[in-house]
Amino acid sequence: MDLEKLAKGWDFAGQTVVIPGGAGILGSEMAWALVKCRANVVILDRDLSKADALKKRLSEGPGSARLLQADVLSKESLLKARDIIKGEFGRVNALINAAGGNMPAATTGPERTFFCADQCGRRKHACCHDRPGADFFRSA
Ligand SMILES: NC(=O)c1ccc[n+]([C@@H]2O[C@H](COP(=O)([O-])OP(=O)(O)OC[C@H]3O[C@@H](n4cnc5c(N)ncnc54)[C@H](O)[C@@H]3O)[C@@H](O)[C@H]2O)c1
Q1: Whose CA is nearest to atom 10 of ligand 1?
Q2: Cα three-residue angle 45-123-28, rounded to 5 degrees
Q3: What's the CA-to-centroid distance between 20 and ligand 1, angstroms?
Q4: Mean pLDDT over residues 102-109, rounded?
Q5: Cα of 6 from ligand 1 centre, angstroms
Q6: Which of 19, 25, 122 maximizes ligand 1 atoms within 8 Å of its Cβ, making it the mutation to test the pocket?
Q7: Sign of CA dihedral 24, 27, 31, 37
Q8: Could you tell me the distance, in angstroms and rounded to a whole number, from the CA of residue 138 to the centre of ligand 1?
Q9: Going edge to edge, which strands form the sheet with 94-95?
Q10: Ligand 1 shell residues, CB under 6 Å
Q11: pLDDT tens digits, 57-101
Q12: Residue 2: what pLDDT?
């Protein structure tokens, strides 16, 4: 992707974008592109232990990045994150849900149909995607 070209065409200055799972492969690339387009990006991830390189990369701006530890399967954790986000940014303009990852228990293949995949794994994967809706972060 030509980020220079992208950043010339899109200006998200003053817009706050929340990315649950933003420390992962897809989320971190989207966070980087959005920071290049001047957005304020908030990454929510339950595991920030390997996010140092990402933090450094995002700190180059011109937008901003805030990394918060949060588990999207925990309402308490999400409420805490929501309070911090509202306090620091006022409102959320967009949410891109990238939390989850490739869970073997929820993965299908030639030997493993959707109906064979472990029900708990499927449920957990689906919950990761459904729980942090944009309305949740918008509502007071
Ligand atoms: N990579 C692909 O090609 C691809 C393709 C289609 C769909 N997806 C889906 O997109 C999503 C992101 O994929 P990825 O490749 O970036 O995965 P990834 O494993 O690199 O990133 C997922 C991130 O989600 C975080 N996470 C997991 N559970 C969490 C929770 N309960 N609370 C907060 N954070 C949590 C992890 O710590 C990780 O940083 C996944 O749901 C995946 O199934 C990926």
Answers
A1: 98
A2: 25
A3: 9
A4: 69
A5: 24
A6: 25
A7: positive
A8: 23
A9: 64-69, 40-45, 16-20, 94-95
A10: 20-21, 23-27, 45-47, 71-73, 98-102, 128
A11: 999 999 999 999 999 989 999 999 999 999 999 989 999 999 987
A12: 83
Tokens found for residue 12 = 């998200």
Pairing mode of beta strands 94-95, 16-20 = parallel
**How many C-beta neighbours within 10 Å does residue 113 have?**
9
Distance in angstroms (rounded) separating the CA atoms of residues 17 and 39? 7
Atom of ligand 1 nearest to the CA of 70: 33
Domains of the chain listed by start with CATH number: 3-100+134-138 (3.40.50.720)
